[in-house]
C-alpha cells in the first residue's frame, strides 16, 4: 500500500530499491509516550510469507549480495517462514558474507 513513497525517496537519494513485495499489509508498530515518559507499545501482526515468497526473497537477496558491501538482517521472523528455512538462508548468506553477528 505504501511502497510509492519509498520508491520515490530511494530514487531521489540514488539508492537501489530492493524491497520484496508480498500480499498483505505492512506490520504496524505504534508507541504511545505519556508525559511522565512511560511508553506503551502496540505491535500488530504483519503479512504471512508464502514458501514461494520466501524462495524469491532468498534467491534475490543472494544474487544482489555481490552488489553491496554489507548486509544487515534484523527484525522478527515473518509468519510463514520456518526457523529451518531462515537458518538455511542465513547459512547461504554467511558463505558469501562471513562477517556476521547476532544480538
Features:
103 residues, alpha+beta, two-stranded antiparallel sheet
Descriptive notes:
With 103 residues, this protein is α+β, with helices and mostly antiparallel strands. The protein is built from three helices and two strands; from the N terminus they run αββαα. Strands 1-2 form a two-stranded antiparallel sheet. InterPro entries: PfkB_dom, Ribokinase-like. Its EC number is 2.7.1.56.
Q: What's the main sheet like?
A: 2 strands, antiparallel
Main β-sheet, spatial strand arrangement: 1-2
> Would you list the SSEs in sequence order as H and E?
HEEHH
Number of strands: 2
Note the beta-strand portion.
5-15%
- What general form does the structure show? globular
Sheet/helix structural class:
alpha+beta
Oligomer type: single chain
- Flag low-confidence runs: none
Instruction: Compute the number of structural domains.
Output: 1
What value does the average pLDDT take?
Answer: 84
Radius of gyration: 16 Å
GO molecular function: 1-phosphofructokinase activity
InterPro entries: PfkB_dom, Ribokinase-like
Domain Carbohydrate kinase PfkB: 2-97
Keywords: Kinase, Transferase
Short description:
It is an enzyme of class 2 (transferase). It is built from three helices and two strands, in the order H-E-E-H-H.
Amino acid at each position: 500500500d505504501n511502497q510509492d513513497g519509498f520508491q520515490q525517496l530511494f530514487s531521489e537519494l540514488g539508492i537501489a530499491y530492493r524491497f520484496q513485495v508480498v500480499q498483505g499489509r505492512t506490520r504496524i508498530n505504534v508507541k504511545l509516550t505519556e508525559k511522565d515518559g512511560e511508553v506503551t507499545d502496540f505491535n500488530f501482526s504483519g503479512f504471512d510469507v508464502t514458501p514461494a515468497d520466501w524462495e524469491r526473497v532468498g534467491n534475490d537477496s543472494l544474487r544482489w549480495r555481490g552488489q553491496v558491501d554489507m548486509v544487515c538482517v534484523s527484525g522478527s521472523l515473518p509468519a510463514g517462514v520456518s526457523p529451518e528455512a531462515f537458518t538455511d538462508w542465513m547459512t547461504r548468506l554467511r558463505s558469501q558474507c562471513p562477517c556476521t553477528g547476532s544480538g
